[in-house]
Design goal:
Elements lengths: L4 H20 L2 H7 L4 H6 L3 E8 L9 E9 L8 E9 L6 E6 L11 E9 L2 E6 L3 E3 L7 E8 L26 E9 L4 E2 L7 E5 L4 E6 L2 E8 L7 E2 L3 E2 L10 H7 L3 E7 L2 E6 L4 E7 L6
Parallel strand pairs: 1-8
Antiparallel strand pairs: 1-4, 2-3, 2-5, 5-6, 5-7, 6-8, 9-10, 9-11, 9-18, 11-12, 12-13, 13-14, 13-15, 16-17, 17-18
């Protein structure tokens, strides 16, 4: 039977393509199996592969979504820049495999890049990473294994269509007072106040907020539009000049970005939007009689 050159060439091409695809297909599953290596990472120069898990023994609701982001955190004085993101809908039970594709042209060798993740249910935060995993540059790998922390403690995921609290309905934060313990940034940076009593929040009735931010005091408003949701309105502050090492400017800049909270082990954890960081507060003990 005569050999058809065109047909033979197409067959060889198909075999070569199959071999190539077989060598790189589903790198996230390779990480799950434990056989992902730096050599595989080198072949996937435009991909971050990872897994996300959590310690709680619970199944995720069908409407859950895993979001994993690749971010540039090189500038300590600026918000992290999102380079790429992926979403996994209805991820099932952990560990959850994910892949983030990115454009290598956006990567600079002297910059720092991290991956972080969160799990949402009906746009409400359920799990999030405490710290970000370094990747790509400065000897960091192109693969990550993330451990997520439960937001909301023992609370169940909010039901779809949950109604916002009425202004006339007492909220669990109403009447509570807190002082700052520390701030944990998404890039692993930790900021601690020189004196916790100089950084306080008081959640008053009628959604009134009183705050002390180092050398300044102010008042404003707060609201909670759903379970574990928290936002602050504009804050009217005094205008004293605080010392250079103060956390004043950092907090004033970030207050409008607060979006959620959780109370765990008696401490209040207040989270910024887009996983920008977490403020930890401890309760202010009531005065002794």
């Amino acid at each position: 039977m005569p050999f058809n050159v065109a047909t033979g060439a197409r067959s060889v091409a198909r075999v070569a393509l199959a071999v190539l695809l077989g060598s790189v297909a589903n790198p996230a599953m390779a990480l799950l199996r434990g056989d992902y290596s730096p050599a595989a990472s080198a072949r996937q120069a435009q991909t971050i592969v990872g897994t996300a898990t959590y310690r709680e023994r619970m199944a995720l609701p069908s409407g859950a979504v895993l979001e994993a982001t690749l971010e540039d955190v090189s500038r300590a004085d600026a918000k992290a820049e999102r380079i790429a993101q992926t979403r996994v809908t209805s991820p099932g039970n952990p560990p959850i495999a994910f892949t983030i594709a990115y454009d290598p042209a956006t990567i600079l060798a002297d910059h720092r890049y991290v991956v972080r993740a969160r799990i949402l249910v009906d746009d409400n935060l359920l799990f999030t990473t405490d710290t970000a995993a370094p990747v790509i540059t400065r000897g960091s790998p192109n693969s990550v294994k993330l451990m997520l922390r439960r937001v909301g403690g023992s609370q169940h995921p909010p039901a779809a269509g949950a109604q916002a609290a009425s202004p006339l309905t007492p909220h669990e934060l109403t009447g509570t007072s807190w002082r700052l313990v520390k701030f944990r940034g998404s890039d692993g940076t930790t900021l601690t106040p020189d004196d916790r009593t100089k950084y306080t929040l008081e959640f008053g009735a009628g959604w009134r907020l009183s705050a002390r931010i180092d050398c300044n005091r102010g008042s404003g408003s707060w609201k909670s539009s759903g379970p574990n949701q928290l936002q602050f309105g504009p804050l009217a502050l005094t205008r004293a000049m605080c010392p250079p090492a103060s956390m004043h400017d950092h907090i004033v800049k970030q207050l409008p970005n607060i979006r959620s909270y959780v109370i765990e082990d008696g401490h209040l954890f207040v989270s910024l939007m887009a996983n920008g960081g977490i403020y930890e507060y401890e309760p202010i003990a009531p005065p002794k009689p």
